[in-house]
Amino acid sequence: MLSLVDERKGGDLVERIQRIRRQVVTDLGLLVPPVHLNDNLRLDNGEYRILLRGEEIGRGKVIPRKVLAINPGDAKGRMKGVETKDPVFGLQAWWIQEKQRLRAQARGYTVVDIPTVITTHLTELLNMNGHELFGRQQLAMTLDRVAESNPRLIEDLIPEPLSRSSVLRVFRNLLREGISVRDAQTIFEALADHANRVKDPDLLTEFVRQRLSRHITRRYSNSSGVIHYIGLAPDAEDALTRGLRSEQGSQVNLNLDPEEARLLLTGLRNAAESWTGEGTVVVLCPPLARGPLRRLAEKIIPRIPILSPGELLPAVRLQRVAAVSIRPKTTRRPRGSS
């Protein structure tokens, strides 16, 4: 494993991690602190752990001098090697010899080297946990940067009508779902527009997301400018609407029957797992239900983006690939969908 970081032996893991940190700044506006690489004799040979503030958030194991052939779901046949699971997405995979790479690729496997396995794992964990790295110091830096060009905006927002803690939670909410906070001025302007009548950070986050429609539309459009989405059948949408509970200016909550919730989440997961097209498939739901549905789904289907039409540009091209019902046989595919 030490050879991965030894530049004299061709190791480039350190440089790859530095590129990841730069990319996260570009994609999300999040400053990732330096990543420390330490040898740990208590781990098995080839095993690695990824820690955040001293606590483990990920673990994997690699086999030196081999490459990982990952079955994306449609690869043909078994490979000669050590069967395992991809540490990022849990897909079936094989550790194989480098000389088998072309054969594996011909069968439909995705073949990656050890540094790519580790850095992909790190990138995914940053996407899932990076919001924890956005703290008060980075918020202060962001406030100072915006205040240089628009001091009145910040003065009229903090500490009244919003506290720094509330603003920090909004930024973390955005990052938690992979929404960039680089356009901080737009975020602060959206907060200023609503802060006098809305105090709940989660509800404020929904208003901010709508203001960031240009970014969100671009974020989930494929190369042809199309967003493929999983919709809700009328019965599922009606159940969501009936289950919404809120008070003026406070967070909207979702109170679903447990069986309805199970059928809904299972249907969304199955529809998302069936998607094999280009780009990311998203769930599209009514604006008031977006935040509550996301909170309900977060632990079951954390990687599936949940959007509302109010967060997308009016001219965006939408194509529905499935409709999820809470009745038996929950997923129906529209005619002509792929």
DSSP helix fraction: 40-55%
Evaluate the radius of gyration: 22 Å
User: What's the CATH architecture name of the largest domain?
Assistant: 3-Layer(aba) Sandwich
Determine the mean pLDDT: 92
Strand order of the largest sheet: 11-10-7-12-13
Q: Would you tell me which CATH topology of the largest domain applies?
A: Glutaredoxin
Structural class: alpha/beta
If helices are DSSP runs of H or I spanning 4 or more residues, what is the number of helices? 12
What is the distance, rounded to the nearest whole angstrom, between the alpha carbons of the first and last residues?
43 Å
Just give the CATH class of the largest domain.
Answer: Alpha Beta
Structurally, the number of domains stands at 3
Q: What order do the SSEs take from the amino end to the carboxyl end, as H and E?
A: HEEEEEHEHHHHHHHEHEEHEHEEE
Shape: globular
Please indicate the percent range of residues in DSSP E strands (runs of 2 or more). Answer: 15-25%
Strand runs, count: 13
pLDDT < 50 runs, ≥5 residues: none
The CATH superfamily label of the largest domain reads FHIPEP family, domain 1
Largest sheet: 5 strands, mixed
